[in-house]
Please model this.
Amino acid sequence: MTKPASMVPKKTADLAQQGSSIFPFEKLPAELKNKIYFNLLQCDTQITVRRRTVPKGDPASTRRGKKKSETAPVAFNWQKNRRTRTFSFGSHGASILRTSSTIYKDTLPVLYGANRFASEGLLSMVDFIASIGPGKKHLRDIAPATLNYLTLATATNSFANLERLERLCLYVVADYWRSAESSFQERQKGLVTYVKAGHAPEQRRRLFDTIHFVVRNYHRMDVYTALTGKEPEVTVEELPAWLKRRLEKCLIERKILKPLEDGL
Model:
């Protein structure tokens, strides 16, 4: 039985009238929707994901009640209490994914496939990849901070499982006071582990091709030359390409990677 108009609450009637005037976004052509998604979600700069550790509530952090303004200091045991890790994207329009299941499926490849994601640490990137669920299969460009190379071997196992990854950007500090070979040795174990994760020769070649070295900061060459009286064996501009060639040579010697047909 339909209620008379006089019996319908005014608020409900207003909502119904408002709903009838909503723009039918999902009925737009796919090409137009994709343009809108890219304009909203694609960023000109990389998206830096920051991990925040939120401790589980502890009785010592609750108000004692002796004085209204007095709160007990937080006594937190990191070994016994669970930690919840959350990630902050910043303002990148990611909330549109919560609009509907259809929009979620349409925008997931755009958000994670059209942007570079950077992190402040290797393990932060590993945790981020694990937290985004189905979004990780769309990741194409990641730039984890690689100052701690002791964790690189562990982290690269996670990166090797990204099927669509095209660029693994690893930052390098160019230090003229140390040899380029020592710089390579620091990264060797993790990078070999990463490429070795490919089961077939073509998979290992693809993983090798994703590696890109980028000089993040460096010591001044003129200071080194003035104090030592000699030129460095590898300059800042040459270091990324030198590391890539040195890695390829190492992988070929270990029979992890096959040489290219042209012998390069």
Remarks:
- Residues 26-53+86-145 form one domain.
